[in-house]
């Protein structure tokens, strides 16, 4: 069947440029034939990780819901802002909670990391920081990443990228990523025969 991809906008705020970027990636992936589950991190409400809470109550609903959505996909996309040149606490907290589930759902999943920021770096340093916990958990983080600088003026009204060269570059990144995930899925199928 078609590839299933979870596309997550990781910023909490309503007017998030990362939510817009996630929606654009989702449209590109749908056009490329994938089945997309577009979501936002704020749908998965969870407290700050606390080992006592885990011991007495187990995992919070939000973490289990995120686990379920991850388990139903072949790959995921994270569109995350950069806070102080690193991963937003909300994102790291979600990764920490979900990493406690067995089987650990990040393992062997393919991931594409993208970011948007009003700054000129486009949040790229945050993505490099995000690679550390994900790669530690066994996620196959795609080598190429996409960061949208000046994101506050980066979108047209219909949600495309204002710069056509960047629009093409994002399309190419998304397509190449899907091709890799597809090739890997076929390889795994062959091995299982
Ligand atoms: C930021 N922002 C930011 N931007 C950036 O490019 N590099 C950075 O290091 C930081 N640091 C930072 C720290 C904190 C605490 C906040 C709240 C913000 C700005 C950030 O990129 C901006 O708020 C984006 O608009 C967030 O993405 P969304 O919410 O538009 O998706």
TrEMBL record:
It comes from the Bacteria. It comes from Streptomyces glebosus. GO terms for molecular function: FMN binding; oxidoreductase activity. Pfam families: FMN_red. The lineage of its organism: Bacteria, Bacillati, Actinomycetota, Actinomycetes, Kitasatosporales. This is Oxidoreductase. One of its GO terms (cellular component) is cytosol. SUPFAM superfamilies: Flavoproteins (SSF52218). Residues 4-152 form the NADPH-dependent FMN reductase-like domain.
